[in-house]
Amino acid sequence: MDVEFSEEQQEIRSALRDALDKASDSPAVRAGMVTEHGYDAAVWRRLCEQTGLAGLGIPEEYGGVGFSFTEVVIALEEMGRVLYPSPFLASAVMAASALVHSGDEAACAEYLPGIAEGTTTATLALAEPGSRDVAEVSLSATVTSAGEYRLDGVKTHVIDGALADLVLVAARLDGEVALFAVAADAAGLTRTQLPVLDQTRRQGRLDFADTPARLVGTPGAATAAALERVRQLTEVAIAAESVGGANRCLDMTVEYSKIRVQFGRQIGSFQGIKHRCADMYVQLETARSALYYAAWAATEAEAAGLDVDPAAPGAGELALMAPLAMTTATAAYRHLAEETIQLHGGVGFTWEHDAHLYLKRATTSALLFGQRTLQRERIAALAGI
């Protein structure tokens, strides 16, 4: 296992950081999160054109850049650092990964080029009321006498669900897990924006009533395995965002402790403040270590494909490390965000300061795949505890 980033990867991080610092400063984040889409569409398109952001992890044959998942993690870490509101997670990670792993070359050729360019936004609808597990998908898919597919049921907490141009939907067809593509304007599809704590990331409820859909891939165990892999990659992606955000919280706190003067001294000189900042750093580095291990496992597993020997590098580790990295990183993120608010004193509790935005992202990210207790039970089962 190589824990060092290559020179090219470091250059990617530097270029993305420069671009995001200009495109996603505090005023830009606040302006974007109150727009109709929850982000500045013009800035998103410009970043995609200048940096190839949306196509980083998409294969070159489908219009992407063709980088590994490690480069995607680097991008997510940098986006999390500045809280960049965008469709990247839902479109370029979740939906794009679902298409790539579906094995449906026709669907990939039709949808992925637009996603890679950033001109098409997509999302993946997995969660249903009461369940966020791939194995418990219950939304119904049927086939008509004319060979057309129809969907009936509800998906909820779909990231960018009410905004995306294309929705990929996990459903049950004759008892088997299947993946379907549904256009945003499809008949029988009702999309409702959900009230959310984190205004930088929208979520929606999707109601399907005899909604026409296109089958993607082949129903059955292969599709279930592909969707489980997508879930694992999404967990690593959330961990990356969380580490980036937590890092920014620590930087803000240390910077403030150097300029805030109380009792004639910089507050950073007080032992109590030093200890709390040191604890923040330890939690951040613990989360970062878990993230980079998971990113390595994801890159190795992606290179090997879905049907690989469990003993192959990364194959067995990803299933365990993905949820472990996510729970570790989101817990650290929330702790650091709370400490940032506390150590900034009165100003940390105000709307004008950005600390509350990071706390809201940390809180919602931790719940994207259900309650923490359920996530830990899954980790324990995977670890054989």
Automatic annotation (TrEMBL):
Pfam families: Acyl-CoA_dh_1, Acyl-CoA_dh_N. It comes from the Bacteria. One of its GO terms (molecular function) is flavin adenine dinucleotide binding. Keywords: FAD, Flavoprotein, Oxidoreductase. InterPro entries: Acyl-CoA_Oxase/DH_mid-dom_sf, AcylCo_DH-like_C, AcylCo_DH/oxidase_C, AcylCoA_DH/ox_N, AcylCoA_DH/ox_N_sf, AcylCoA_DH/oxidase_NM_dom_sf. The keyword Cell inner membrane does not apply. Residues 6-118 form the Acyl-CoA dehydrogenase/oxidase N-terminal domain. Residues 236-381 form the Acyl-CoA dehydrogenase/oxidase C-terminal domain. Its cofactor is FAD. PANTHER family: ACYL-COA DEHYDROGENASE (PTHR43884), ACYL-COA DEHYDROGENASE FADE28 (PTHR43884:SF20). Belongs to the acyl-CoA dehydrogenase family. This is Acyl-CoA/acyl-ACP dehydrogenase. It comes from Yinghuangia soli.
